[in-house]
Amino acid sequence: MNWPTGTTLAGKVALVTGGSRGIGAATVRALAAQGAAVALSYADSADRAEALAADLRHAGTQATAYRADQADPRQVSDLVQAVAADFGRLDILVNNAATYVTGRVDDAEPDLARLDRQLAVNVGGVTAAVRAAARVLGPGGRIITVGSMQASRAGFAGVADYAATKAAIIGYTRGAARDLGPRGITVNVVQPGSVATDMNPPDGPFADVQRAANAVGRFGRPEEIAAGIVFLAGPAASFITGAVLDIDGGYLA
């Protein structure tokens, strides 16, 4: 997708965690199209992250990829500090990195290691990033976390642990909005619905069920989620904080 270019974010520096693919990569491109310098983090997809950063630099955008494991609070804090030091500031944090692990609560042999890592990434990684960003963001700062429609309506069996992690960040976001509001920093959540990515392909085994659950009868595109994130990152959203923006094709309608 060719993003409409603009200057709403000119002079701003944004960090997108998990920015090498899917919604994260679309968000990186959308922020850059509005004039922001962009840092993106990755855990495993080094080639994709470096290629995206190089592509943006070729187009004239300041962009750098950083490796960080979102399950490690120290690495997350170091990531935020490194971005602020390398770019000279940080204005926008997008908490996009997450993992998705399914498993029924009555499983006889649950994969506790994977479930614990999901909690560490989806909740611990977000809280560590917000705390670190709160030390460097100035007035007009923006924090946006990518949640999930399943925090509001599970809808499917086997998603209790994942839904709990996404519900937790809503409560954390609302509390952080109270803490940071007096400083002119907004904190919000975007909740995507079924989005076509390599982790959730529209021709996957559960694709038809997902399409049928949406009012519009289709998967969303990563760019449609990124558009909501860019809006919340911009000056027009300065009076929106502690909010949850559903971009779910009517799944919750």
UniProtKB/TrEMBL annotation:
Keyword Oxidoreductase (UniProt): yes
Annotated signal sequence range: none
Family matches, as Pfam families: adh_short_C2
InterPro entries linked: KR_dom, NAD(P)-bd_dom_sf, SDR_fam
Entry keyword set: Oxidoreductase
MF GO annotations: oxidoreductase activity, acting on the CH-OH group of donors, NAD or NADP as acceptor
Domain Ketoreductase positions: 12-198
UniProt record similarity statement: Belongs to the short-chain dehydrogenases/reductases (SDR) family.
UniProt protein name: NAD(P)-dependent dehydrogenase, short-chain alcohol dehydrogenase family
Species whose genome carries this gene: Goodfellowiella coeruleoviolacea
Organism lineage string: Bacteria, Bacillati, Actinomycetota, Actinomycetes, Pseudonocardiales
